[in-house]
Each structure stands twice: as structure tokens, then as C-alpha cells.
Amino acid sequence: MQEIERPASASSGSQAGGTQPTSGPPRWRSWFNTARPVTLTAAVSPVLVGAAVAAWQGAFHLGLFALTLLAGVLLQAGVNYLNEYFDWKYGLDTAQSLGSTTVIFRGEMTGAQVLGMGLGCFAVATALGVWLIVLIGPAILLFGVAALFIGYFYSARPFTFAARGLGDLMVYLAMGFLMVWGAYYVQTPHWSWAAFAASVPAGLLVVAILNMNNIRDYHDDLAVNKRTLPVRFGRAFGLRYHATLLYSAYLTTTLFVALGLLAPAVGLTLPWPALLAWVTFPLALRDVRSVFAAGEHDPILRLGVRRTAALHFQFCAALALGVALAAILHIAA
Fold first, then answer.
1. Any alpha helices (H) in 20-61, and if so which ranges?
2. What is residue 177's DSSP assignment?
3. How does pLDDT run across 48-90, given as a tens digit for each residue?
4. Could you tell me which of 231, 30, 198 has the C-alpha nearest to residue 117?
């Protein structure tokens, strides 16, 4: 696809990184808001799940958990800054975009500052990753390189995964599989089908956050030919896809628990207390019903993103608590 490059005349400061900062909210608040703190739980949740599976299988180190958690949050914040910058640079956002914090358009931060914050978060996360490599071994490098690659090129050329309709797959791989299994691996460095099983529902729900963003931004994305899945296949598809992602998280969790009870030798299992995640199902029902009832420009869609992010965190926290409970009760892994 052809993306729209922002014309040089769009801002008098475009050659120097965007509009020069103007008076407004305190700078720290602009930086904080541009990190999109509501979405940072998307990095916390998979680390909780992966660490809980490791504890169930007999290994948990608080210091390694803290390092992994901080690195994950910094990566997510960095991705948010870079997404803000590249969507501005390529003309995919405007001052009226629902999915943008618009700090560059309002002159609260320059494009160069937003880019610098994103790269700075990546740099600190990389330093933490090097620390983990020293403590655990070189295999951690694979997790780090993959996460940085997906995080940077999620919005940046030449790959621009998000604009090509590949964002869902990349988010599932990075925020589902890689983060859950990575959090597991730093605790006990070997392959685990249980960690893979736990990554599936966590990954489905984090993709649901992205899809909810894409439903909300449907008209903005359509106008600039940003080929998200709702733009490619229609808004109605996006709504059905959203419901499928949410419900599938509960169904896959139940499936892996059933495999643990009926065919434990398979290995692709979760302990029965993992069913504690079902306590969040009423929130999923509310989420789906409100999204289907909303109009195309309904403000409830903006709230829907927050609700889906909250559901992802609450589901993963309940799942992690259930798996940790299995460790406490000495339910065999």
C-alpha cells in the first residue's frame, strides 16, 4: 500500500522534528499521557501469567520477575511513543484523530521529542535485557531482538505492520507468546508447553485491545488507507472478530484445563484453578454487548478500549492467581 507522507509545509518545524513546544500542560504530563498508561497493563499481564506458570512448575525468583516486568513495561511505552511519532510522520493521524494523543499537533511535544522518548525507552529496556542475558544466558537475546524488531517496525517503515493489517499477528506474537514464554523462561530456562498454553488466552485478549482501537478508529484509518482488519473486511467483521477473541480466551483456557485433567501426558495443559479466570466473564459479556450496541461514532467506543484493556488485565491476573494457587496447593505440573 502507499502511505501518505506528511507534507513539509504541514508544520513550520517539520524539518526539525515537528512543531516547537508551546505553553500548555506540564511537560511531564504530556510525556506521561503519550506513553498511554492505560495500555501499559498489556505488558504487565503476560509477565504475571508467565511467572505464575514458572512458579507452578517449581521456580520463581522475585528479582528476575521485577527485571522482566520493568523491561516489558518500557518496551510497551516505547512502542506507544513510536506509534505516535510514525503515525504523525506518515500522515496517518490528524489533530482530530481519536487514537492519537495529538501532543505533536498541539505543540506540547515535538516529533523529535516523541521519537527520542520512544528510543530512550527501548534503550533502557535493552540494558535490562543485557542484564538478564548475563544472569540467564544468551537465549534471552532472541526474545529481546524479536520484541525490539516487532515493536519498532510495528509503525515504522519499511514494514509498517500496523498499516498493512499485520498488527494483530505481531501483537499476538510479541505481547502474547513472547512475553508470557519469556517471563517463564527467565525463571526456568527451558521449553514449556504449559507456558505456551497460557500464552494463548493472554494473546487473544491483547489482540482484542488492538482490535477495539481499530474499530474506534475505523473512519480515520479508512480515510488514510491504513489497512487494519476492520478496514480490510468491514466494521461488522471487526465487531464479530472482537467477540470471537474475547470468548475464545475463556474457551481455550477451559480446553487446556480439560487436557490437564483428561490427558496430562500431552503437556499442553493448565491446572484446574486456572478456571478462576472465568470470574471475569461477565465483564467480557458487557464489553461485547456495549460494542455491538454502539453506533459508528458513539463515544462508548473510546470507553470500549479502556474496558477491553481492563478485561485483559483482570483476566490475566485471575489466570495467574489460579495458576499460582495450583503451586501453593502442590497440584502436579
1. 27-34, 41-56
2. I
3. 999 999 999 999 999 999 999 999 999 999 999 999 999 999 9
4. 30
Q: pLDDT tens digits for 132-178? A: 999 999 999 999 999 999 999 999 999 999 999 999 999 999 999 99
The CATH classification number of 23-328 equals 1.10.600
Alpha helices in 57-178 (DSSP H): 62-89, 111-136, 140-153, 167-171
CA–CA distances in Å: residue 139 to residues 143, 150, 173, 189: 7, 18, 17, 9
Confidence of residue 331 (pLDDT cuts 50, 70, 90): confident
How many angstroms separate the CA atoms of 152 and 170, rounded? 11
**Residue 38, amino acid:** V
DSSP-based three-state secondary structure for 222: helix
pLDDT score for 23: 54
What is the grid cell recorded at 35? 506513553
> Smallest Cα–Cα separation from 35: which of 67, 73, 90?
73
Give CA–CA dist 27/11, Å, rounded: 20
Distant-in-sequence contacts of 277-283, Cβ < 8 A, 24+ apart: 277/201, 277/249, 277/250, 277/253, 277/315, 277/316, 277/318, 277/319, 277/322, 278/250, 278/253, 278/254, 279/318, 280/311, 280/314, 280/315, 280/318, 281/250, 283/307, 283/310, 283/311, 283/314
pLDDT value at residue 9: 37
With beta carbons less than 8 A apart as the criterion, state whether 139 and 189 touch.
yes
Distance CA 149, CA 151 (A): 6
Amino acid at 296: E
Q: How far apart are CA 99 and CA 51, in angstroms?
A: 32
Q: Where in the chain are the domains?
A: 23-328
- DSSP one-letter code for 97: -
